[in-house]
Design brief:
The chain has 50 residues and is of the alpha+beta class. It has one domain (5-48): Translation initiation factor 3 (IF-3), C-terminal domain (Translation Initiation Factor IF3), CATH 3.30.110. The chain has 1 helix and 2 strands. It has one helix at residues 11-24, and strands spanning 29-38, 41-48. The protein has a two-stranded antiparallel sheet. The longest helix has 14 residues, at 11-24.
Length: 50
C-alpha cells in the first residue's frame, strides 16, 4: 500500500485495511511478515497454506 501526501499522517487506516485482509485470507494463507511501514509504503507478506 502506498501513501501519498497527507495520507501518511493517517497510516493507522492503512494498517486497519491490511489487518482486514489478513482476517479475510486467514483460511487460505498465513502471514509471514506483519504489516510494517517503510517510508511511504506499508507492506506485508502472506504465503499460501499447504
Amino acid at each position: 500500500m502506498r501513501f501519498k501526501g497527507r495520507e501518511l499522517s493517517a497510516n493507522d487506516m492503512g494498517s486497519e485495511i491490511l489487518n482486514k485482509i489478513i482476517d479475510d485470507l486467514d483460511i487460505v494463507g498465513k502471514v509471514d511478515s506483519a504489516p510494517k511501514l517503510e517510508g511511504r509504503q506499508m507492506s506485508m507478506i502472506i504465503s499460501p497454506e499447504k
